[in-house]
Request: fold
Amino acid sequence: MKEYLILIAAQNQRGLTPSEEQQCIQDYGKWAEKLADNHLTARRLSLEPGELIPSKKGVTTDGPFIEAKELIAGFVLINAKSDEEANSIAASCPLNEHFDLYVKKTN
Reply:
């Protein structure tokens, strides 16, 4: 088994009502239980802004402000046998209805 990181992009989340957000959390919990050992961990990131740490070469942006094209709301760490299985697991995630999900092998 290999580990895969599913990044949850926040662009679409802004349209959720509090009750929709609560339902989303409940649906996610049921999905995670079904995955059993394939589901390793998950975290929602803080809503507080982070810090930009520029590389030694400086920062390249489209304008004078610190920006992000995609805001990451959180992540899910899963086990899967292949890239195809990881993509299938991510596609079955109920968060996929409201968020954009990106899958990346960790090792």
About this structure: The mean pLDDT is 83. The first strand starts at residue 2 and ends at 9. Strands lie at 2-9, 39-44, 72-80, 100-105. The domain at 2-46+71-105 is CATH 3.30.70.1060 (Alpha-Beta Plaits).
